[in-house]
Structure formats: C-alpha cells, structure tokens
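[step 3/7] fold_predict: job queued, chain A
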Amino acid sequence: MSQQGLDLIFERVLSGGEVFRDRNLLRHDYMPATLPHRGEQIRRLGSVLAPALTKDRVSNLFAYGKTGTGKTIVTKFVLDRLQRKAREHGRALDTSYVNCRLAGTNYRVIADLCRSLGREVPFTGLAVGELLDRFRSALQSRGSAFLVVLDEIDALVKRSEDDSLLYELTRINEKLTDGWIGLIGISNDLHFKDFLDPRVLSSLGEEEVVFKPYTSDELYDILKERAEFAFRSGVLDEGALRLCAALAAGEHGDARRALDLLRVAAEIAERSRELKVEENHVREAQQKVEHDRVTEALSSLPLHSRILLISVMQLENTRRESSVTGDVYEVYRELCAAGSVEPLTQRRVSGLLNELDIMGVLNARVVSFGRYGRTKKIRLGVEARSVTASFSGDEMVRGLLSYAPRSVLRHQTSL
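[step 4/7] structure written:
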C-alpha cells in the first residue's frame, strides 16, 4: 500500500468515519447511564450494601452467572453510585476492584488491596502473613468501611486448590476494632462453591445474587440503546441489530458477545467503505469473533488446564471415539511427569474438565454404565490446530505438543 493510501485510512478515522459516532460505547467495559433489564439485581445489591453509608457492617455477597450476564458492570454501577452518595454526605467509604485471574496470586491480590487503602507495599519479597498484617493495619488506621470486589474469584482457588486467602479475608473483621471490610465475590462458575471450605462458604455466601442469561429481546434492547449514540444516523440496518441479539442469545445470552458482534460488523462495513451495517457484515463478524474468542480462551488457560487440553488432543489423535475421564487423567499424569510438573488429584482434574466444558474448549457428557457407575466422554471443543497454534509459544508446554505418551502408544497397540 502506498503512503497516500495509508494516509487516507488514518484521515478517515480522524474525521470520525462514516459509520461510527463513538465506537467506545460498544465496548463491554463502557459504563452506560442505565443498565436495561438488571433493575432487580441493582436493587438487590443496593439494599445489601446501603448500610455502609452509615458505617454499619454489610453482609458479604456472592454474585454468579455466566459470562456476559452483567455481574461486573452491575456491581461497578452500584458501587459508583454508593461512593457518590457517600461523598455527598461526607461518609468514609472506600472501595476496591480486583480481577483475581489477572492478579494471579494471593500476594498480588492483597498488595492491590493495600494500595487501595494508600499503603504501599513491595511487588514481591514479603511473606503473605506479613502482607496480611500490613493490610489489617491499614484497615484499622483508616477506620472506614471498605467494600472489596473480587472478580473471577474462582481463579484464587482453582489455580492452587487453596482458599486460605478467602478464609483470612472473611475472618479479618474479627481482629478489627475500627473499620471493616465487606466482600463481593463474582464468578462465572456455578459450581465454584463446591471447592470452598464450608467455613469460607458460610461467610462469603451470606447474600447471593444470581444473574440469568439475557433473552434475545433483552439483548436487542441493550444493543439498541448503545447503538443510538454509537452510530451515525441511518447506518445501522434493523435486521443486523436483531441478528446480533439472536446469535448471542442462541449461545447463552451473552451481552459481551452481542456488543462485540455489532462493533466488529460495523468495523467490517467501515473498512469496506460501505455506508450501512447489514446482516452480511454480522455473519462475517461472527466468524471473526469466534476465532478471536477461541484464541483468547486458550491463551488465558492456566498451566494444568493447558496440559489437560493437550492430553485430550493426544488421545483424539489416536482414535475417533471420545475419551473417558480415566484415560485423560492417565495421559495428563504422564505429561506432567514429562514436564516436571506436580500433577493435581483426579478430583481436581475432574473440576478443571468441568470448567473447560463450560468455556466450550472441551465437550464433556456424562455416560451411565448402569451398576458399573458413570463416566464422562470427552472431546475437543475447538480445532486441534488452534490448540497447537496457541500453545506453541508457551515454553512450559511447547515440548508436550510433540511428546508421545506411553499410555497413548499402548492404546494404539491394543487396537
């Protein structure tokens, strides 16, 4: 492409283009003035957290539902309004938002909470116990109500089978004489609570808010409200809008996916120099978003989930029928040994398989053998080449992609 052609592309964007008025309104992290079809959840969170305005302790709260059902944005929406009200009336109220999957470790979660209270701590080097002591000291000296959102809270437990941090956080108020902490846990995994110690569960789950998937009509309302200000007048075809809502509702009512489809479809139309976003652009966007979704899902998997996925792929390469849980676990243990990784228990691996199934990376279905019990039949939910492409740059598992487990070879010999 010539420099002149490149300049034209840049100038079109600088001039605002002919499709978008403000594309950022279609980002799922954009905070709109209203949240359609989440009034019940907003009222529920608001009523649980409102006593913080008078510095009265609130119940810990657990919000769960599938991806894209509004858990995070509703929680941020309520906390934003709560803080505004606290400022209006001169009340001491602090809040903090931590994405536990991005934070990665217990240490980084506590460090983020310390910084939210104005207490600087080193990025590494302290024992977790020392860090918790500094956090308690910061809470005590600040003496305020402190509401903490732990998004993707399941990542804290699933990564290491350790809920000690959650236990400490749910018990920390017992050691405070001034100030307190209230926890809001958010998870996409409806089975996450099965992994928690009963003492943690009883404290964390004092109040629960369930976010059900959006229907097609509800997604249409959400898209229409955003589209009114995101696009220039007359560029969005009504059929394209309804198709985005229908496609996202057909999966599991994911508002993020609906917004992504609409935004990508409009970007495709814009790059094609077309003046209207139509259904064919949505169909093309669907293919692109699906590819991006798979790549993102695979790249965000923790180590043991990656090894499990490679185990299923290795088994699938040797036979056409689905693998059973026992076969997958046998290959997984062998790959762990080859990679010098301590394997998880079979119960923990079963939980990870459930998680991968929920994500759509694996397809797992329970098969009954009558009095001989039940097992799971497992297949890849994505293309093997996508797994290879995503993991080939990971030094920890790259070598396992070409490793031939003896258990797989034994199966080939027995056929």
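[step 5/7] annotate
Residues 365 and 376 are 5 Å apart (CA to CA).
The chain has three domains: 39-211, 214-298, 301-414.
exit 0
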